[in-house]
Amino acid sequence: MVMTTDVHGRDLRYFVTVAEELHFTRAAERLYVSQPALSKQIRALERQLGVELFRRERQGAALTPAGEALLPYARRVLEAWEEGATAVEEVRTAQRSTLVVGMSTSPGRGGLLPAVRSRFTAARPEAVIRLRQVNWADPTAGLADGEADVAFIWLPVPDQDRYAWTVIAEEPVRVALPDTHPLAARAEIDFADLLDEPFLALPESAGPLRDHWLALEARDGRPPRIGAEIAGTEETYEALLAGLGVCLVAAGNVPLLTLGGVTTRPVRGVPPSRYVLAWRKDDARRPLVRAYAEACRTAARGGRGLADGP
Amino acid sequence: MVMTTDVHGRDLRYFVTVAEELHFTRAAERLYVSQPALSKQIRALERQLGVELFRRERQGAALTPAGEALLPYARRVLEAWEEGATAVEEVRTAQRSTLVVGMSTSPGRGGLLPAVRSRFTAARPEAVIRLRQVNWADPTAGLADGEADVAFIWLPVPDQDRYAWTVIAEEPVRVALPDTHPLAARAEIDFADLLDEPFLALPESAGPLRDHWLALEARDGRPPRIGAEIAGTEETYEALLAGLGVCLVAAGNVPLLTLGGVTTRPVRGVPPSRYVLAWRKDDARRPLVRAYAEACRTAARGGRGLADGP
DNA sequence: CTTCGGTGATAACCGATGGTTATGACCACG
DNA sequence: CGTGGTCATAACCATCGGTTATCACCGAAG
Prior knowledge:
The first copy, chain A, is an alpha/beta fold. Chain A is 36% helix and 23% strand. The first copy, chain A, folds into three domains: 9-92, Arc Repressor Mutant, subunit A (Orthogonal Bundle), CATH 1.10.10.10; 97-169 and 274-309, Periplasmic binding protein-like II (D-Maltodextrin-Binding Protein, domain 2); 173-271, Periplasmic binding protein-like II (D-Maltodextrin-Binding Protein, domain 2, 3-Layer(aba) Sandwich), CATH 3.40.190. Chain A has nine helices and 14 strands. The A-B interface holds A 2, 4-10, 13, 49-51, 55, 57, 64-66, 69-70, 72-74, 76-77, 80-92, 95, 145-146 and B 2, 4-10, 13, 49-51, 55, 57, 64-66, 69-70, 72-74, 76-77, 80-92, 95, 145-146.
């Protein structure tokens, strides 16, 4: 196994140009460098290879056998790199013109998504939207790991200073119970009456959001009973039916759960939840992100006093 | 046309290694560089391409789509370069193990060449000798332009300080004439009697060697008449037959011309000529050159007091 | 024979690059 | 809650790759 040292693409480009011109000064002009710089680099390449590539003569240069041997490979190297750079460039532009929208569940809410989409597409006709449903284990719905560029999520978000958002809705909280649950008979429920109920909880990794849906701040320090962990709509529905526990749910999400056998009731004593479109602060300047956020504000009929944050 | 900037092969090697390890620290170890250096270089490559190649995560790194796209091309670039370097290396070793022997005419002289070859091959069995006949326009028989590594030539050599040599023979000079020439009747000729004869001369480019064979130093400042220029044995023979002029010839080269119709006679008043094996001083350390010179010394029965020079 | 124009090589210099070690922020794990 | 692993950052330094100015060389043209 021969150990070959690395080469700078520039040196090969210089070499090929000199090989084409057979003239250092002219090649230097074509390359927009000074002739001494070119001479030195070619010399360095020769030293690196341990062989002369050109014979310097009065009226220019001539390829040595070694130079002759190298030339086609040098061209191949440059060509391969050019193709690689182009391939990357394509990915780059493709990803610059597609926006991935993360969501934990369907946003629903009376055609919110189509409304945003049509506004967004009007502003950015060339852009492509990809929706991506993300497991509830990730409270940022894909923002954290770069899977999504923007995301429909519930506050609070962990790592608060890495994200910005605009509020879409502030919704009262209801409790979801199996029809068979004793409390299901009541028209409205005090959260105090739920303190001893087993709760369905988001995975640990959801951090403060898990606490939020357990209404930790309304429990006065007493730890909740966890009936099961849930990471998706269907899971939750099945867990409710199975009587593993109850759970809080935003008013706007109620339709996702009330498929039969499950009821929801208003809850007193729990603050409303805020549903937001969020993005990484790093991406705040990306045109597609800005455009989507703007589309979202207007679609949610901005001006109702809903604030951006943080 | 997209303008792609150059890339250093090292950066691609770093990239490929990280892509294989998916782990900066391990990759840095494999590459024998520090982890910060690797991080910085990858970052630089990403900045150059304007795109992230890896997503840094807790337990290592993962390729982004752009990185995924680049990887195969990066491998192709490295591979192409590896092949190119190998090709050059082959040329290098080939040329290091072949010795090109330049000569203006066949050295003849009773099997000199086979004797040198056998001695040389005994010392360097792996080496290959290539003989190369060079036009008389080049008095260094190919040393000057690199066509030959060693050469059998006549002194004086131009650019004296660029070459070294070992003397093979010091031979008396004769004059070659057509049989029909009046002077051909004499057994021996004074050079004074040749002063007005037209001479066959080497090309201008032969420099001092041309003057030598015109015996300029024996003419006392009177310019010679040039009957024709000659650049090869057959040319010379034909020119002599045609009566275009006479010419001086070393005793050892007489057999090359006396094919019929041409005679040679000893000349008084012209110093003997020295036939040498010469090489570029730059090459004085090359093993093959040294070995050939040594073989030449012994084959010419060194110790007869023939000096090396300069 | 000298001058002149054009070749590539060399020198002196300077900012950028690519490496080092030391350190930090972060997070998973006992 | 330390501890050990990740990658990133900082400060520093030698080398690299470029510049301009200049040289040595040689062929062509006065």
